[in-house]
Amino acid sequence: MAQPIFIPLEMVANGKPPYPPVLALGFRPFYLLAAAWLVFAMPMWLLIYGHGLISESHLLGPIWHAHEMLWGFTSAVIVGFLFTAVSNWTNRPTPRGWPLLFIASLWLAARILLLTPWSEIGALVETLFFVAAAIGIAQPLFRSGNRRNYFFVGLLLIFALLSAAHHYSLLTDVVWFTARQIEFLMLTVVLLIITVITGRIMPMFTANAIQGAPVHKRSWLDRSAVVATLAMGLSLIFLPETISKWIAVAAALIHLFRWWGWAPHWTLRKPIVWILHGSYLWMPIGFLLYAIPGSWSPMASLLATHALTVGLIAGLCIGMMTRTARGHTGRPLQASKAEVTAYILTMAAAMIRVLLPMIWPEWYRLLTSLSGLLLTIAFAIYLVKFFPWLMQPRADRKPG
């Protein structure tokens, strides 16, 4: 039988792993890379947006911004989370040590190359990254027979396929789907992952943190939310507006009902929990904004997308990145003032980016820049706070 290619933490000399602490588990390098990349890429986008800065990549302007927020920042957080979670689910090692360094290096190389004249090579490297990440979770899942989570392997391979398709649509004259349609397909897959994961963790986190909270987990509602999310995403691409708008309304109501069942109003004194609930609320808000006809508000669709990307995705990322990093570095699950500040800045960035332009559309450019600045500061706070912890062994001296 073939031996696993990833070294379990127990298979080390003198009880010390043969690699630095930052390579002990997937969340460590990928959370640092994700935060650092947002701190770099968001100001870069504001320079492109405000001053017309142009790179020599085939990804230009808003297309580069969308690509780097979905296939760059968001994918790093998802892969870091999955490498950590799959290890817990299966009690088997995911990539760590030098294999983890190799996979993280693929991600970083793609980010750099996609800013240069060698961006076509970056497209290939990015696709290889997703394939390597899929292999990284496939081995422990398949060896342990954890069938419940096999689909995550397929979703990472879909990331690879959509990455290749996005680049192909921009590099060739052959267009099956436009770049914008592929971006929305990628966003839909990310929303599916969020829908599944939040259904597992939100009731548990809330019940564990707040004694007596009336948390309700309904399996039928979780399944309905998955179907509604997929239907909403696909309908906005393939169905007439008159149909897709009603699907978006139905999806928003399902997610809103689901969210309320998790007792969000009980979490206000627990910032490390309320950030997750506050972020999830942007899912139904975004879906409702998609339901607004373009004839009523030409900006509604764009604002809806940013409700999902800034409010939902960035909010959940900052929440899970702090919680996971605290828990897996042996520290209490209690947000500090720095983390609470990052949470507030992220939610403020979403409100400024999504809600205020509906009131003052003439200030749209200024509000967009202010939102991007606040989001950059939020993740810079994370980087400063957690960089030392993620580079050092666990505080309780346990492996991981």
UniProtKB/TrEMBL annotation:
Keywords assigned: Membrane, Transmembrane, Transmembrane helix
InterPro entries, sorted: NnrS (IPR010266)
Domain of life: Bacteria
Keyword Ligase set for record: no
Any Pfam family matching the protein: NnrS
Keyword Membrane: yes
Residues that span the membrane, as ranges: 30-49, 69-86, 98-115, 121-138, 150-170, 182-199, 220-237, 243-260, 272-293, 299-319, 340-360, 366-384
Protein's recorded name: Uncharacterized protein involved in response to NO
Organism the protein comes from: Permianibacter aggregans
The organism's taxonomic lineage, starting at the top: Bacteria, Pseudomonadati, Pseudomonadota, Gammaproteobacteria, Pseudomonadales
